[in-house]
Amino acid sequence: MTTYDFAIVGAGIAGASLAAELAEAGSSVLVLEAEDQPGYHSTGRSAAFWEECYGGPEIVPLTIASGAYLREHGFLTPRGALYIGRESDAGELDAFMSRFADSGATIERIGRDELEGRVPGLRESWTSAIWEPACADIDVAGLHAHYLGRARQLGVGIACRARLAAASRTDGVWTLADTKGETYRATVLVNAAGAWADDVARLAGVKALGIQPYRRTVAQLRTDPAPDADLPLVLDIAGSFYFKPETGRVWLSPHDEDPVEACDAAPEELAVAEAIDRFEQVVDWKVLALERKWAGLRSFAPDRLPVYGFDPQVEGFAWFAGQGGFGIQTSPAAARLAAQLLTGAASDEMTRTIDATLYSPARFP
Ligand SMILES: Cc1cc2nc3c(=O)[nH]c(=O)nc-3n(C[C@H](O)[C@H](O)[C@H](O)COP(=O)(O)OP(=O)(O)OC[C@H]3O[C@@H](n4cnc5c(N)ncnc54)[C@H](O)[C@@H]3O)c2cc1C
Questions:
Q1: How confident is the model at residue 170 (pLDDT cuts 50, 70, 90)?
Q2: I need a labelling partner for 115 at 20 to 30 A (CA). Which of 3, 139, 169, 206 fits?
Q3: What is the mean pLDDT of residues 85-90?
Q4: Does the C-beta of 14 come closer than 6 Å to ligand 1?
Q5: Mean of the pLDDT values across residues 147-166?
Q6: What is the mean predicted confidence (pLDDT) over 165-189?
Q7: What angle do the packed helices 331-343 and 140-153 form, to 10 degrees?
Q8: Ligand 1 atom 12: the closest Cα is on which residue?
Q9: Is 71 helix (H, G, I), strand (E, B) or coil?
Q10: What is the C-alpha separation between 326 and 236, in angstroms, rounded?
């Protein structure tokens, strides 16, 4: 039986991008994916934006480092983002500006006149905003397919309907078994299982880190007027909604964050109703129809930073988890960095400005 250098659990954007990067570095790689197809969970359910400030100042270096790769490969379409606020949110807007002042993100305060020009039909109570010109839409399906394709081209085996069920390590090699009873061998086991990251750790005898999945809902609305194609991503500075245009429709989220067990997430009626109610308080557009709704899981470590690198206690076990709400937009730099950490390679142009210790699994007691 082949002994792979790396077996990666999960073929979402995390597993796919890391598989491609490890194979690019010359390693032999196997990816095990529980579902019929890669991308069924969080990766297939995102709101598909690249937003410099999303996830906080400690995520900005990963996002910016990924931007060049995403642009170069044609996965970004410029959109711009606005964090909007009411009179009473002035303090929040100021605090946001200070928090990101030295982060590398390009942001500026704008007043009602400019805001009105960017969001037609904006209700009067929204008086100022922060404008982030670099925000872009991401072609998520294209990016995921790019990494899966690159991985396959470089000889990576991607086994679907292969849910890891058992893992044991003898003489420096993992023996892995899926729920169908197929077995595999690998020197390093990489946990890229998204919402199931803690479960995968436990079944390999590794201490869970407390990676918690939270449900997030998105609704697709038909509105009158339909949103302009160049409407920015509009986010509430107080964090109670965001929306953006998507081929003549509005994608709207109530920015919900309900802690749940890892599962096939489904939208709750209440979250959708709240989203529409909040949206109607932002613009004077009529909501004509709720066309589609979905939910997905965003999984965070306790400090809300991702976890990349070898487990400090169990030899041959590595984490690539806790991608939260920024796992797509950070994937190129995150995967490159993780591949460097796992193979012992030096940082390169893409990762040079990233402090990997921020994301180390060793930061947890
Ligand atoms: C509504 C919503 C909007 C979002 N919007 C954005 C956005 O605009 N921009 C952005 O960058 N990010 C966004 N995100 C976050 C982004 O989607 C995630 O960070 C990212 O998809 C996580 O990727 P992943 O590969 O870690 O997880 P997943 O895509 O969930 O992949 C994990 C995989 O592991 C598999 N797995 C689990 N257990 C096992 C096992 N035992 N054996 C084998 N396989 C297993 C699962 O089947 C799954 O396919 C959003 C998320 C949601 C829910």
A1: very high
A2: 139
A3: 97
A4: yes
A5: 98
A6: 98
A7: 30
A8: 326
A9: helix
A10: 17
